[in-house]
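Notebook entry, cofactor series.
This is the third protein in the set we're modelling with a bound small molecule. For this one the ligand is zinc ion. I'm keeping the input format identical across the series so the outputs can be compared line by line later. Sequence and SMILES below, as received.
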Amino acid sequence: MMLERDFMKSAAALAVRSVGQAVDLVSGGRSCFFTFHRVASTERWEALPNRNFYLDLTFLDQLLAYLKESGWDVVTIAQAMALENDAARGRRFVNFSIDDCYRDTYEEVVPLFRKHGVPVTLFVSTGIPDGTMPLWGAGLEDYILNHGSITIDGRRFETDTPEKKRSAYLEIEALWDGPKAGEHYHRFCIENGIDDAAMHEKHAISWAMLEELAADPLVEIGSHTVNHPRISSLTVDDAFFELNQSKLRLEERLKIDARYFAFPYGRAADCSIRDFDIARRAGYAGVATTRKGLVGKGQRPYNFPRNTLNGSHRSVLHAELHLSGMTGLAARLIGRV
Ligand SMILES: [Zn+2]
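Returned structure with ligand:
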């Protein structure tokens, strides 16, 4: 991270930036939506068993400074939609949204955006502050981070080095992932004497935190379902419940107008035309996916592309690949949408 400035002067970085400038000449303004989940300091990030799920906070700080230096305006989704409607030629704007929302959204992410004086969007799964959605990934990771071994269904995993912690996490995550993940986690808590409620509170965002954030003009809040299911796998009625109920819950609890929604997972197989229509019926004004790419002129409001930033993004060059539209183009070329 210390060499970021030198790296940005390198030939590779110059090539990426000149593509970005060429895109500017051809298309005028550009709009790029980013999304991520959690953050950690560089030191903490190094040790985390599931570190790909976290953005390095130093990188995010550098990215926000870089965007300001290079003429990108950070805006809310409401502002981005208004700018699209105005067809603001030549302007470049970017939105950041945080999906799910953990305690670090309140403690670390929003304070960083405040420091830069720019807005941020939170897509909340309401089962997190309500305590009804098991944060099994966070609980599993916490236990692995703080223990030298772990026992699951009688099987023992050694977790006494950072490498072993990472491989154990990945193996167990693959075993649990799916609709029964919460049940696996519940059994694991009993087997290892974990206080499930205390662990949830340690990692979850709370309604008290969200109330404080909702009063901040730099924070825009939208919905990310109640229970974080893969919407395409649900019946129409169940999908409508997830989209509608989470909206109503946010509006009732925070006294806000929750106008925007982000699909969990969000790739082409996770949400499609049927689900965009459900989002419209549930009363949303705009809906985001995680299909890579830029928001272009004439973008329909029910499937905004967003570029996911994760732990492997530790250089501004990586972000520039998204800002130039190159990653979206590559994803379409190879059919990974
Ligand atoms: Zn999510």
